[in-house]
Amino acid sequence: MRITCPNCGTRDRREFYYQGDAIAVHRPDVDAGLDAWDDYLHNRDNPAGETQDLWFHEAGCGAWVVVTRSTVTHHVQDAVLAEKVKR
């Protein structure tokens, strides 16, 4: 899989560190309770289709990049700097 870093251009995915879902995962409050923390730490959706993932360009410029891709084909539709993504 190839990811286009907005700063460095197209690179092999081995230059990047996968962090996980860029949108849906939210850290619980400190006092949220054990069930909430267990769910946060151990459970993730595994969708077949388009996702937005957070990747760190570890072997490059050090940017955090939100990558929109298909988990079925690994085709990357878009990659933007995380700081530019509106939530």
Main traits of this protein?
87 residues; two-stranded antiparallel sheet; 1 helix
Overview of this protein structure:
This protein has 87 residues and is mostly beta strands. It has one helix and six strands; from the N terminus they run E-E-E-H-E-E-E. It has one helix at residues 34-42; strands spanning 2-5, 9-12, 17-21, 50-56, 64-70, 76-81. The strands form two sheets. Strands 3-4-5-6 form a four-stranded antiparallel β-sheet, with no helix packed on it. A hairpin with a 5-residue loop joins strand 5 and strand 6. The longest helix is centred in the middle third of the chain and has 9 residues, at 34-42. The protein is globular, with a radius of gyration of 14 Å. It starts with a strand and ends in a 6-residue tail after the last strand.
Spans of at least 5 consecutive residues whose pLDDT stays below 50 are: none
Query: Which percent bin holds the helix content?
Result: 10-25%
Strand count, sense and barrel status of the largest sheet are: 4 strands, antiparallel
Distance between the termini: 26 Å
Which percent band covers the strand fraction? 35-45%
Number of helices: 1
Strand numbers in spatial order across the main sheet: 3-4-5-6
Strand and helix order:
EEEHEEE
Oligomer: single chain
Radius of gyration: 14 Å
Instruction: Report the principal-axis shape.
Output: globular
Number of strands: 6
Mean of pLDDT: 91
Alpha-beta classification: mainly beta
